[in-house]
Design a protein that fits this description.
The protein is mainly α and 850 residues long. The chain is built from 44 helices and 2 strands. α5 packs parallel to α7 and α6 runs antiparallel to α7. The N and C termini lie far apart (98 Å).
Length: 850
């Protein structure tokens, strides 16, 4: 038996179930379900109002001669939400009216609406009397008159065709009721299936349920296609739970869905995005069909429709391998793929970047002589534009025309958008001319893209003419006006943006969208006064500012360091009850923190807490970083504790800020723990953070740990001048002059001698290591090439060189005093002294000019 889905029947509204009785009209025998009392018993009648079926048909039906049956449940849920129970004591007054007396909506023999020519052509394919019957029904509204010539000779098949070929559910239902009124006609499950589909597509749910009850009463047992029809119409009608309920009822009756019904269920799950359920249901169905509980091997060939559904499902769920396997199985079992199959596979492979497979599929299409259609080329155009092969995309359009295929709106719009974003003006205009010749409508999305193209390439006049073409029709929407304003505003064409805004106002299309993008446009050109004035005028135009209105203005002002002004609108936003998150607070807090107003940043943070607006990690990161920069260690740690208590995980920004803080206060252990978290994060530590750790390790003479970070930075190409200088200082402090000299050589080779710290580190190393010539040469380089002025640390190292070379400390002291008295003369005296004792050629006059 088909395994039941894991569905709780209590979750579904009670729906009617087909009676499990055998009908003489259908060659299917189904065991009778026990324990369910028929709603309508033999010989009983019903009263109480006119049903929707009776309203449509114009007469009531008696229940005489109806066979007893079982309905799916005692209650039915109507579309209006109310439930009704069919009373067993109900009766109907009067006998059935003669249909020949005309239905209540028929006033005369007025002709029915003429069918399209294509319908007449299709009718002719039936042969026999069917074309004449359908023509009569299409031209004569009165059924007695229309069907009189064939009234006594209509077969079951002919009645099925007649019902199926009706274009409106009302006409089909009218004919169906007419058949029932003629007792000589047999209505079987196929006829009911046709009507269930027609009424279901029209979403006439009460009539659908009424027919289900009627089938049960008459003992017309449902077949596979009956359940498939009900599942299909309810799922497509947006009532998925009812569709699932019918599937559950089918399972309860022990009926295994046939492949068509199974395909309907797969489509239902696919369209709702439940791709795993598609796969699970299909595998379960295969096991139940085989009867051995094994779905791993199956020689049974599925239908083309099922294969296409599975391929599309796997594609939409990103399971390219599974989709390819199904496609291969399809070919192996001799099922010829159609254009739809190939289109799906091309789309799947292309979206996953497998362009070689796309080429193979196109070749396979040609081998099998499977013709490409417009959708095939549309998919290829989209794929080529996605992969920036605009020439191939354009060639696809030409190829489509060569093969006598008509490009549709999708073809033109896809390629036109691709031309516009690449600023291919000539190509875009040629395509536009072609669309105009064909009378193809240019949608707002394409219109906006073309406007932006003209603006981006500086063709302002053309952009304005293009805008006026659509504005002049009076049909432009608020969304299109706002997109155009935004396009001008982003490029700084503020007068044009203002003109579009006025055009929207004249056409009475102003909405909050136009105000929002116009405020943003003023932000682009830094006209903050006008941005505020426009915002303040919104309500005078009968428009209420929304979250985006406030958010845009606050972000603009906060970014311009106008924190106090931004806070003014933040307060108004709070009063309007439009703050639902901390984004706007974050912008203003950041603005205050950037300007050093930590007191105001802290005040806004406390206000957030008071209004129960939860800060996020970004807010905490700003406050922690600002506090650390300002040396407010206690406050920074307080924010860290608050963040942890709120359960927010740290991020790279937070960790980097913490390491800065811990470095400043010398918290080595805490810094190490935080650095480990950074190493395990997606982004890793930034260069500044790694330098901080090297600095901390150098301060603690922890060479091994510092070297580890330094090597990682070098591998990643992140080691900068500061990192090299810190490592040199550490080796120098530890007396490891060989390693220090190696670092100094690397710095010189990499061109990393440019700032005072680096020069001082190298000069200090050479003076300690007795390399006096190198020390003086580096000093000369510092003055001549680097243009860096020495400081007290520089002269301290150079003084050591002089002392080690025999110059007295008193003489060195006089040189230091000379610097304070007259810096230029004193610097020249240092150079003369250094040149005297070391073998370095120096033009003292020239150098003294520094």
């Amino acid at each position: 038996m088909f395994a039941k889905l894991q569905l709780d029947s209590n979750c579904f509204p009670v729906v009617s179930t087909f009676a499990k009785t055998s009908s003489p009209n259908v060659g299917v025998s189904v065991p009778t379900k026990t324990g369910v009392e028929p709603t309508v018993k033999l010989g009983e009648q019903r009263t109480g109002g006119t049903s929707e079926a009776e309203k449509v048909s114009g007469f009531r039906r008696s229940t005489e001669n109806q066979k007893p049956g079982t309905v799916f449940g005692p209650e039915l849920e109507n579309p209006d939400g109310r439930q009704r129970r069919t009373s067993p004591n109900a009766s109907t007054s009067g006998k059935r009216k003669n249909l020949g007396a005309k239905l209540n909506w028929v006033k005369s023999n007025a002709p029915v609406r003429k069918a399209h020519t294509k319908c007449s052509t299709k009718w002719a394919t039936y042969g026999g009397c069917i074309p004449s019957i359908l023509q009569a029904l299409d031209t004569v509204k009165d059924l007695d008159e229309a069907l009189r010539p064939w009234e006594d000779t209509l077969s079951n098949k002919e009645r099925s065709i007649i019902l199926k070929e009706q274009s409106s559910w009302e006409r089909a239902f009218e004919i169906f009721e007419w058949f029932k009124s003629k007792r000589c006609y047999e209505l079987n499950v196929i006829h009911y299936n046709i009507m269930l589909r027609s009424l279901g597509r029209a979403k006439k749910w009460s009539l659908v349920e009424s027919l289900c009850r009627e089938m049960a009463v008459k003992g017309i047992a449902p077949i596979n296609s009956t359940y498939g029809t009900l599942i299909d119409v309810y799922s497509k009608g947006g009532l998925k739970e009812k569709a699932l309920a019918w599937l559950e009822k089918m399972n309860q009756q022990g009926m295994l869905p046939d492949e068509v019904t199974m395909g309907i269920v797969l489509q239902m799950y696919k369209k709702s995005g439940e791709f795993q359920k598609v796969e699970d249901f299909f595998k379960q169905w295969k096991m139940d069909e085989r009867g051995d509980g094994d779905s791993s091997h199956d020689d049974h060939s599925l239908s083309l429709y099922t294969y296409n559904t599975l391929i599309d499902t796997y594609g939409k769920s990103g399971q390219l391998k599974e989709a390819s396997n199904i496609f291969s199985e399809m070919l192996t079992k001799g099922i010829m793929p159609t254009t739809v199959t190939f289109n799906t596979m091309i789309h799947i492979c292309g979206n996953n970047g497998h362009l070689d497979e796309v080429k193979s599929l196109i070749q396979k299409m040609q081998e099998l002589r499977c013709p490409a259609d417009t959708r095939t080329y549309n998919i290829l155009i989209s794929l080529h534009t996605k992969h920036d092969d605009i020439d191939m995309a354009a060639q696809c359009l030409r190829k489509m025309k060569e093969e006598q295929l008509e490009p549709d709106l999708v073809s033109y719009r896809t390629l036109l958008y691709a031309f516009s974003i690449r600023h291919m003006v000539t190509e875009a205009e040629d395509l536009l001319s072609e669309m105009d010749e064909k009378g193809l409508e240019i949608d707002e999305y394409t219109q906006s893209a073309l406007t932006r193209m003209y603006i981006d390439v500086g063709l302002l006049e053309k952009s304005w003419l293009w805008f006026m073409r659509f504005h002049g029709t009076g049909n432009m929407t608020s969304e299109c006006y706002s997109a155009t304003i935004d396009a001008y505003g982003e490029r700084g064409y503020i007068s044009e943006a203002e003109e579009v805004f006025l055009c929207s106002q004249k056409n009475k299309k102003l909405s909050v969208l136009e105000f929002n993008v116009m405020i943003k446009a003023y932000g682009y050109v830094k006209n903050f006064v006008k941005a505020c004035e426009l915002f303040d005028s919104i309500e005078s135009h009968g428009v209420i500012p929304d979250r985006c209105s406030y958010g845009s203005l606050i972000q603009i002002l906060a970014g311009a360091d106008l924190a106090a002004k931004a806070q003014h609108y933040l307060n108004k936003m709070q009063e309007a009850g439009l703050i639902s998150d901390c984004i706007t607070y974050c912008a203003v807090i950041s603005s205050y923190a950037k300007s050093g107003r930590l007191d105001m940043a802290k005040k806004l943070y406390n206000e957030m807490i008071e209004f129960e607006v939860k800060p996020d990690v970004i807010v905490y990161g700003i406050l922690i970083n600002a506090s650390a920069e300002a040396g407010n260690t206690e406050e920074a740690i307080g924010y860290i504790d608050a963040m942890r208590k709120s359960g927010l995980p740290g991020n790279a920004v937070i960790y980097n800020s913490l390491i800065k803080l811990y470095t400043r206060v010398g918290y080595l252990k805490e810094a190490e723990e935080t650095y480990k978290l950074l190493l395990s994060s997606d982004t890793g530590p930034d260069v500044y953070c790694s330098n901080c750790m090297i600095d901390l390790y150098c301060e603690h003479s922890m060479a091994k740990q510092a070297e580890e970070i330094f090597r990682r930075m070098k591998r990643n190409g992140e080691a900068n001048e500061f990192a090299y200088a810190m490592m040199l200082c550490m080796y120098k402090r530890l007396g490891r002059f060989q390693e220090a000299s190696r670092v100094a050589r690397e710095m010189r080779t990499l061109g990393l001698l440019s700032n005072l710290l680096s020069y001082n580190s190298v000069i200090g190393l050479y003076s300690l290591d007795g390399r006096f010539n190198d020390a003086v040469a580096t000093f000369k380089e510092m003055l001549d090439d680097g243009g860096v002025l020495p400081d007290d640390f520089t002269f301290k190292s150079l003084g050591l060189v002089l002392v080690k070379c025999g110059i007295s400390k008193r003489a060195v002291a006089r040189l230091e005093a000379g610097l304070k008295k007259d810096y230029q003369s004193g610097l020249q005296a240092w150079l003369i002294a250094l040149c005297t004792i070391v073998d370095v050629e120096v033009d003292c006059e020239e150098d003294g000019s520094h």
